[in-house]
Write a structure and sequence with these properties.
BirA Bifunctional Protein, domain 2, alpha/beta, 3-stranded mixed sheet, 11 strands
């Protein structure tokens, strides 16, 4: 099994365009036409709902959110509703899980550790919380009335079809956090969302954490950068 990983930095990409690209790449990966791929990008303001999402996660109604300039899309990924916007790092690994022991749960746990490592490089201590997928700042787990509550800084939601993953993870870096306050993020009532810039009291270099994430992914999963031309889109 090849250990090559094609890393592509795409800038800001509309959500549906990125989803279509993921589906194309997944089919190419399934046919062994390309190695594993890691897409690194941002989205315009967008809410996405996972397979288990419920209407109450968007309490204002879809039309209200669209009037604020935020697109709303249903997806086939796991997880519930979340927000994407400029300044948030989104990573979509399109990988064959056969190279990851066909263990999606262990793979997700590995992604969490990659995120924690990347945040550590920008001096933001982070943790996982039992029973909750994603990455949180240090503090007491929700629900809590503690003076030091953990805040969610990164989310994960995957889809696996015939052994190939699509969708992935999102880390709040410099993005606007207000849109999270208009929803029930990840279906967790009362959850506090945060970002690298909020935790650091200063805007952070987006490129720095992007590089930290890609390096951490390669180290954690034993991948090496593929220098081949970009796959067709």
């Amino acid at each position: 099994m090849s250990d090559e990983l094609l890393v592509k930095r795409l800038g800001i990409v509309p959500y549906l365009e990125a989803w279509e690209l993921q589906k194309q790449l997944a089919e190419q990966r399934r046919c062994n036409e390309i190695p594993d791929v890691l897409l690194l990008l941002e989205h315009p303001p967008t809410y996405t709902r996972g397979r288990r999402s419920k209407p109450e996660e968007l309490p204002m109604g879809v039309e209200w959110y669209e009037a604020q300039g935020i697109e709303v899309h249903d997806t086939d990924r796991g997880g519930l509703v979340t927000y994407h916007g400029p300044g948030q790092l989104v990573a979509y690994p399109i990988v064959d899980l056969a190279a990851y022991d066909n263990d999606v749960h262990a793979y997700v746990r590995g992604l969490e550790q990659v995120i924690i490592g990347a945040l550590g490089e920008v001096n933001v201590p982070a943790q996982t919380i039992d029973g909750l997928t994603g990455v949180w700042t240090m503090g007491d787990p929700p629900p809590t009335i503690s003076p030091n509550p953990a805040r969610k800084i990164a989310s994960i939601g995957l889809h696996v079809s015939r052994g190939i993953t699509t969708h992935g993870l999102a880390i709040n870096v410099n993005n606007d956090l207000q849109p999270f306050e208009w929803i029930v993020p990840c279906g967790i009532e009362g959850v506090g969302m945060t970002s690298v810039s909020r935790e650091s009291d200063a805007e952070q270099g987006f490129e720095r954490i992007t590089g930290a994430l890609s390096r951490g992914y390669m180290l954690r999963f034993g991948r090496r950068t593929e220098a081949a031309p970009a796959p067709r889109s």
